[in-house]
Amino acid sequence: MKITSPSINSPARSVPGSRTDGVASSSVTSSSASAGSKGGVELSSTARHLSNLQNSDNDINMARVNEIRDALASGQLKIDASKIADGLIASVRDLLK
User: Fold this and answer.
1) How much of the chain is in helix, strand and coil states, percent to nearest 5?
2) Are 35 and 41 within 8 A, CB to CB?
3) What is the pTM of this model?
4) What is the CA radius of gyration of the chain?
5) Tens of pLDDT along 60-94?
């Protein structure tokens, strides 16, 4: 008696569109077909909000950036390195907790 391993479909021999996990692929195609028949996609309010955040031009306040740049160039804004260092150390301590 000869014992052989079960045949395993390799990616090269598998049929395109077939599923090997036992789930029927017809449910995938039928849901995509019904979504395509609507002619569009409806986004939830959360998805719309996230999309607006991603596409927002308000990420950087350029007026404020220019004010800070001008203040630095004219010497009106002084950078206190010790305050920045203290803030960084406090942030790291919070992260390590």
Assistant:
1) 55, 0, 45
2) yes
3) 0.34
4) 29
5) 889 999 999 999 999 999 889 999 999 999 999 99
